[in-house]
Amino acid sequence: MLGNGIFTQEGPAWKHSRELLRKQFIRVQSQNLDHFREHVDNLLNRLPSSGVIDLQPLFLDLTLDTATALLFGRSVYALRAGIDQDKANKDFAESFSIAQEGLAKRFRIAPWQFLYNPPAFRKACANVHRFVEGYIKELGLGNVENYDKKQYGFIKQVADESQNMKELRDQLLNVLLAGRDTTACCLSWTLYVSHRQIWFPVDC
């Protein structure tokens, strides 16, 4: 699913990807991230008024929404699934999760990862690639100078330094993987540790 990106490269190719993405994230730090408030509101609307709830799946949906908003200039609205989420976005979100689970299984059995390659995994990877490539074509790689810098800043900057659509697609998917999982795990652990600090202070 990831192709040739920062998680799958070594040597000079990895160094090139790292430098490419580092420069873009430095620019992103100065951008206005107020539009992420919409996705936090969607998360809050998904919380029940009472009872027990598993927050981690919601955090995964939240970070997928915010990461796609940052990378693609528009969100896939995973938190709106079952409400008013677009079918293409729904298919992408579901396929991304299936492909990601497959990657985790392949990682655990490395260097025999080729033994795990079921049809569902291959189909999910193909769906993810098709969605991202379709989005890139819709924007028009040849007309990156016409992008709205505020809305499509990240993808424009990566496109400027990518040799072709496949390289751009792979770089975006590598960052999307990191932006979704690591951030969701960080949110989960932050909430867990904060809860323990409230109920079990360190000095008790």
Explain what you see:
- The protein is mainly α.
- 67% of the residues lie in helices and 0% in strands.
- The protein is built from 7 helices and no strands.
- The chain has helices at residues 11-28, 37-46, 55-72, 87-108, 119-139, 149-160, 165-199.
- It is globular and about 50 Å long.
- The N and C termini lie far apart (48 Å).
Give the fraction of residues assigned to helices.
Answer: 55-70%
Strand content: under 5%
Instruction: List the secondary-structure elements in sequence, H or E.
Output: HHHHHHH
Class from helix and strand fractions: mainly alpha
> How many H/I helices?
7
**Strand segment count:** 0
Largest sheet data: none
Low-confidence stretches: none
Radius of gyration: 18 Å
Overall pLDDT score: 82
